[in-house]
Amino acid sequence: LFLPSFQDLFGVSMVVPLMNLHIKSLGASHTVAGIIGSLYGTMQLFSSTFVGCWSDIVGRRYSLLACILLSALGYFLLGTSTTVFLFAISRVPVGIFKHTLSISKALLSDLVSERDRPLVMGHFNAASSVGFILGPVVGGYLTELEDGFYQTSFVCASIFLLNACLVWMLPWSEENTGNREHQQGNEGTDSFSAKANHDLHLKSANNGAVASDSLFRSPWIQVATVLKRIKGVACSDLWDIFLVRLLMSVAILLYYSNFSLALEERFGVKPLFAGYLMSYSSALGVLAGCLLGPITRLYQHNTYRILLHSSTLTCTLILLYASALSIWMVVLSSTFLAFSTTIGRTCIIDLELTLGGNEASGTLLGVGQSVTSVGRIVAPLLSGIAQEFSPCGPPTLGAGLALVAILIMNMKKQKYCSHGNVKLKNQ
């Protein structure tokens, strides 16, 4: 699963940085290019919850394969887009079905115990981040060739087809449940044991895989079940963790929203330096993903404490950046922010799955992605308003939102520490 995640973001990051240049070369105005970009984000916002929930119903194999193949179709169409209309059409299947990483994370949560989940998720994020670092370099090289954008799009589509083959070859019927049950027998368990929940979920996942054939014959049953599960999330006591995710997402997006422009206005550095600094932060983010194992052991696998401390550090570092008097203070804040944000993103996903229960992991991850999409829509608007007052306005506002998230986590400390008696889990 780490290899397809690496290839996924490697292929996407080859194409995405070149898309604005390509659509403008087709004769589109800035407004049309912006509308098409917003269309993709809007489709992601509404589709992520439905696709995630669908993966809970029909099984990870079918949903993951469908998303990979339809994403490959989208990038293939992108490679044939010679008009603005075809370009817009090519974004539709990708906008609806490009949730391959979310379903892969749901699959990982099915396969590992609660105790090991932050570590495995951290390694998963690190693998995909490496692809995101290397992809733009390869994409830039391919663009220099004749019809470079079209070739890059076809290469990306080919990578997704290769991922489909890798996913098909995974040993779906050999999840080694016997070994896990043997390991569980050697350890103390209680009625709320994470590993017991994990074992029960493996059984339900296998049963779901068997039942998925009948579900495929009745799409209306699938739709009804999806809507019922989404209603279960909406009626559950999970609003606070999703609000924390939204606030922290907007805070980090505000930090990066006017990064290059703010550095130029405040310190007179060129955009190239800002680009190097962001690449440096991305590389540190990969390292942070690999360090989650020692960190979780240090905190005795208390995800809530890790999230609270990482969010507090993130808030402090954003404030440091907003009040920085020299470029070296910016470098210092960026260095540690790469660690705190990477750790925080992993922990908040783990806390969502812990509070909501593994049985709806796809739904929960889908809702989480929708929440992040809302942040991507809201953050540019807030950034524009804050920049009217000062170049330091966006990060200052971001620090304030992060502080609100920290206060919410403190108010709900009892719920997080006890794993919560969440309505969705009981369902």
Question: What's the SSE blueprint?
Answer:
Blueprint: H1 2-25, H2 30-58, H3 60-79, H4 84-97, H5 100-111, H6 117-143, H7 148-169, H8 177-185, H9 194-216, H10 219-234, H11 239-257, H12 259-267, H13 271-290, H14 292-298, H15 303-322, H16 327-356, H17 361-387, H18 393-411, H19 413-417, H20 423-426
Helix pairs in contact: 1-6, 1-7, 2-3, 2-4, 2-10, 2-17, 3-4, 3-5, 3-7, 5-17, 6-13, 6-16, 8-9, 11-15, 11-16, 11-17, 11-18, 12-13, 13-16, 15-16, 15-18, 16-17
What can you see in these coordinates?
InterPro entries: MFS (IPR011701), MFS_dom (IPR020846), MFS_trans_sf (IPR036259), Sugar_transporter_CS (IPR005829), Tet-R_TetA/multi-R_MdtG-like (IPR001958). It holds the Pfam family MFS_1. This is MFSD9 protein. GO terms for molecular function: transmembrane transporter activity. The structure is a single chain. The chain has 20 helices and no strands. With 427 residues, it is mainly α. Helix 6 packs antiparallel against helix 13. It is globular and about 50 Å long.
Task: Briefly say what this structure is.
It comes from Nyctibius bracteatus (Rufous potoo). The chain is an all-alpha fold and 427 residues long.
Overall number of strands: 0
* Order of secondary-structure elements: HHHHHHHHHHHHHHHHHHHH
Class inferred from helices and paired strands = mainly alpha
The span between the termini is 29 Å
Instruction: Assign an overall shape.
Output: globular
Helix content: over 70%
How many domains? The number is 2
Mean pLDDT: 80
Residue fraction in strands:
under 5%
Please give the CATH architecture of the largest domain: Up-down Bundle
Q: Unreliable runs, pLDDT <50, ≥5 residues? A: 174-215, 420-427
Q: Oligomer, anyone?
A: single chain
Total number of helical segments?
Answer: 20
Largest sheet report? none
